[in-house]
Every structure is written in structure tokens, then in C-alpha cells.
């Protein structure tokens, strides 16, 4: 593997949280710069990747090396595309399973819309449920991608400020000296030291093995100065001339110890430990260092304390205990907060080896302490939610999140003096809101509604802590969540009541403070109500709400000129077009679709992502549908042809099934328009292209929807071209589908009449 990294301004990666990036090799040039920028904009970390995306090492050797690397990562990010899902790649077949085995949090980011269900079915069906995050969210009522990404990164990445607090919690620092080729021995020595409970809170600095090269004098000197003990992994590799340990690090240690002994001003200890495998033979003898060879190079071990043997644990522990007792150790109070910080160190590998089991134990003790650390309780909920050091387990996540809510409520009840403003009420509200979300992810909608209801009922209390304005925004937020939950259970009246109440709050806030955030919130409220009315077939009310949302978004776009504001406006314009089309008011529908098309064209040119181009292509087909309905066949054919060109380029570039599905649909629409224009030869060719595309999609997916789409295009082509074979194909597909779903019987009967 050829490991490389990227950081902000390519700064030194040492000490930064470690993130690993993986994708299908053919997606790398597009996905890597796109997603690493998103992550680095949110968190100052080091993103590692293997430049040999198709490295040819032996499978076992590569997997072992990969697991060694992944275990130290705080997060693994995957770029998800159709190519990733349906193709073969090391990212999907090796790196994703390895990350799950090592219980490293996994963040899959979709670069195409509509991949959520497919990802669950094809990639994560046999393992833990993995939440797919979509980069190109086109629904304004959904949580923005930037917010979802920030929330997730905050839950799994330990940032600089928190890492600094973790480092302050250590009792003392040990400097671990070793040859780069002995990194496994170095890791084992770290574990040997920390197996003794007395040394749990001792940090161990070592030159991170991921960093290429050895010329890091300043970093080494800085770590050296804050360390009180110099532990050296002694192996035969120290016999090699010119090695950095014997040339630089050990002389630095001897110089510092001698100076301290002479001036009696500093406590510093040196403990060399011989590391070797008992069963590992070399040239017929144990693989042990030859001190005579080291001496020949001018390096003396005679002034060292006794060379310790890693396999003589009792003697090694005594030596370490004696050494640590002579150096100045920082005292800690053993509090729950202290345990939480040390737990974070072991979870993330902050100046200690990664030990997720030890981290879990420390968090549990901190969360269940008589004076609990709520940060530890929250971390436990996130661990089980994200699969961080443990297997994903939503039931346990619910338990810890429920306890967190109880702990914040108890703290609030004990002291909620608004003058002190300790924030326990806000924390309790947010804990309930998250509890509701976890219940929803676990498929427990009733419990999700109950938790959201508790949060709603607490909003009145929040007014005393955060003020009327902020409390009302929280109330509107939870009302919208409740409304969405009620919709899932079919309680449309209750959902509408929640949306209306939230809308009134947004109207009030937009009028009082008029901020862009408040007005966008209001536009989202209107759009939600419009969607609900359209679902109820109340088109007049739906249009009224969409018009209100449109007016707000036009103003917001004029103020910000942002891509997000354009997407928001395009969304509501398309929905207005859909309402008019449902009424068969094609001229008005075309007007709205045309405005949305103009915006989508600008976005495609600005963003230049396959998804942005796909959105533009979809808008073209909507315009074509209206023109076809109005009898403007040449214009419709032109729109369909242009859309097909976009979809085809996207398919060739990404191998996306979604884009291929749009290409098939657009091709069939184009063929239909040409058929009515009397261009039979070209229409026949396009119909058969659509059949071929639908066959590919069916063979790749074997889904009911793919089968029905294939049968439909076969039928239409057969009727147009008098092709009995295609007609029989459609009949057979619908016959098979109707055995499981009688609703397909009407299509079978239609085909049967033509046979």
C-alpha cells in the first residue's frame, strides 16, 4: 500500500484526527477532491488514502496491513456511486468489511440521488444498518447535507480543543523510541505498559508510523521535552549502522538524564526493553539482538539500566513501577470526567494505543458514576449508533440516549436558575430530540412520537433558559419532526396540525426578525403544507402554499445568489408545475417548468457534477412532457433529445443505474414523440435502444419496478413495430408479476389481447 495524506494547507498530520478515504478506483479523480474538501472545511483532520487503488499484493497480506491501518482511524469515509454498489472494488469488497470488523465508524456519502434503498439492499443488507448521506439533497424540507455532515463529524471526531483537554488529563508522558520497521513491536510495548492498571493514565508518544521519512527533529524534540520516561524497543534492527534511534534519540535521552543527575533539577528515566518472538527463529537461533555488534558501531549499552526482557513481565513491571515512582507524576482526582478523557484517548489513539474495549469500560464507569459525566453517556449513545468501537446496536443506543436525557433532566431540576444559565434545559431538549431520531431509525415510530412529544411539552420551560425567540424556533423544529412522524403512521390530520402550528411560529419569526434563516424556515414550512395538501388532492391549497414559498425563495435568491437558494427555488417551481400539469393547465405548467429549467441549467454549469446535470436533464423531460401534451411535437422531441444526451453522458461517466434509468425513460419518450411526427425508422431504433437499456437494468437489479418498466417498453415497442416476440416478452413478465401482485393482471390482459 502507498499511503498518502491530505490536510488543510498540507500541514503536519501528526496529532490530527485520522480519517481514511476509499472509493471505486474510477471514481477517485472526481470523488476525492470533492469529499475531502467537504470534510476539511468542517474539521481539521488528516485524511489518509492508498494511492495504489488497485495494488497487487497478496490478498491476505493486504488485508492484514489494511486492518492494521484502519484500527487507528477515527472514521472511514466511502464515496458511494452506482459503480461502487454494482461493481467490484477493493473499497467495497475489502475496505468496507475491514472497517466494520475493526468497528471503525463508517460514513458513506452518496454522489448520486436515489441510492439509499439500493445501498441498503446491495451493500449493507447482511451487516449493520449504515445510514447513507446524500451530498446532493434537492428536497429543501430535508436536513441540508452540510448540517448532516457536521453533526456526524462532531459525533465521531475528537477535534483539537477536546484532544488538548484529553492530553492535559494524562498523569505523565513516556517517549517510545523504536525503528520504523519495528512498529509492531512498538505497539506491543505500548500494550504491555498499559496492561498494568497503574499505568493506564500514562501517555505514550511515538513517531506515528503513517508519517513518511524520519526527519522530524522538531516534533521529536517537543515530545521529548514533555516526556518523563524514555522507553526503547530493542531489536536486532538496532544493529544496523546509521539508524535514527541509536544515532539521535538514545544520545538525546542519555544527555538529558546525565544533565538531570548532575544538576539534580530534573527527573528522567530510561527503560530499554528487548522485544522478540520466542518462536521466531533466524538462522537456527532465537531472533535476539547481538549487543557486541551494537558496541562495534561505537554505541555503549553499559551505561543503560538493565536491559529488560518483554517476556519477563514481573521484572519489567517492577522496573517500570520503580522508574515511574521516581519521576514527577501529575495527580488526578479519578473523577468521571477524568475517566471520560482517558477513555477518549484509548478510543481515538490520542497518545496511547487504540484500545476500544478499555475505552468502553472507562465510558461506562464515567456515565454510571454517582456524579456522572454526561459527555461519557452521550459518547456511549453515539458509539452504538455509529458503530464506533462496538457493533451498531440501536437498542443500546436508545438506552444510553434515554439515560442521557434523564441525567440532563435531573441536572435541570436541581438547578435551573435562569440567571446562572447552565444550559441543562437545552441539553435535555436536544437529548429528547435525538432520542426520537434514534427510535425512528430503529423503526419504533410510536416511541419516536412519544419522545418528540416530551420535547414539545418541555418547550415552555425552555423559554426561561433561552428566551422566547430561541424557544419558539426549537418548538417549530420539533413540531415539524412530529408532523413527519405522524405522516409515517398515516395520521394526516395530526401531521397537518403540527405543520400549521410550526408555520405560524415561522411566520411570526420571519416578521419579527426577518433573517434569511427565519425566512427560509418559513418557506420550508409552506412547502411541507403544500406537499400535504397535494397528497390530499387539495390542489388549490397546495398551490397557495407553494406560491408563498416561491415568493420567499425568490427574495432569498436575490439576496444570496447561492447555489442552495437556486435549488430551493427550482424545487418549488417544479412543484407548482406539477400542480398545473395535474389540472391539465399545460401552458402554466410549462411556464413554471421553464423557470425551473433555467435555474437547473445554471446549476449544472456552476456545479458541474453528474447529479446537477441529471437534474437539468429531468427538467428538460418535464418541459418535453408538457410540449407533447400541447401537441408541440418538434419542440418536445428537441427537449427529449437534449435530455437523452445528458443522461447518456452521465451513464458513460458514472455507470449509474439511476442515470441509466433516466436515459431509458428519456429515450422512450423521444421515440414516442418521433413516432407521432411520422419518423418511424428513427422511432423504431430509439424504442429498441430503450428496450436494451431496460433489459440491462432488469438484469442488474431484478426488481419489480425494473421488470414492469421493461415489460412496458417491450409492449410499446411491440405495438409500434408489430414485434410479436417483444409482445410475448411483455406478456410473460406481467404474468409473472401478477402471481405476487394481482394489480399487474390488467397489464397482462392488455398484452394478451394483442397476441
Characteristic key phrases:
Rossmann fold; 5-stranded parallel β-sheet; 13 strands; 6-stranded mixed β-sheet; 755 residues; globular; alpha/beta; 31 helices
Shape: globular
Q: What's the CATH topology name of the domain at 170-331?
A: Rossmann fold
Largest sheet properties: 6 strands, mixed
* Mean pLDDT level: 85
CATH superfamily of the domain at 170-331, please?
Toll/interleukin-1 receptor homology (TIR) domain
| Strand coverage percent | 5-15%
User: Please, how many helices?
Assistant: 31
Radius of gyration: 32 Å
Q: What structural class do you assign from the helix and strand content?
A: alpha/beta
Strand order of the largest sheet: 1-3-2-4-5-6
The percent range for helix content is 55-70%
What is the straight-line distance between the termini? 60 Å
**Top CATH class of the domain at 170-331:** Alpha Beta
CATH architecture of the domain at 170-331: 3-Layer(aba) Sandwich
Poorly predicted sequence stretches spanning 5 or more consecutive residues? 209-215
Could you tell me the number of beta strands? 13
